[in-house]
Design brief:
The chain is of the alpha+beta class and 102 residues long. The chain is 27% helix and 26% strand. The protein has one domain: Roll (Ubiquitin-like (UB roll)), CATH 3.10.20. The chain binds FE2/S2 (inorganic) cluster. FE2/S2 (inorganic) cluster binds next to loops.
Amino acid sequence: MAKVTFEKTVEVKDGKTLLDIAKKENIKIKAPCKGKGKCGKCLVKVISGKTNPPTKNELKFLSEKKLKEGYRFACEIKDMDDLVLEWPNKKNEKKNEKKIEK
Ligand code: FES
């Protein structure tokens, strides 16, 4: 079973997105498009670990620089192994949202 660490470490089952896991763990994260990869509000930063490669939606919204820095959409991360994440806090949220614009 894979592990995901954000505010705490949890074990996750295959087939769930990071957004699903966050909701289950009561981690507040904005997701106005309900996990369809269209709004960019569920931005997270991958510090370490393995995930699926960026999806078409992420490639559309995130600059190459942001992807290299580890920014991803929580709703688009499906495969994960020993993932350590940084979740944008409220103060940085708007800043991060702006940064994903091309
Ligand atoms: S919830 Fe909208 S992009 Fe992830």
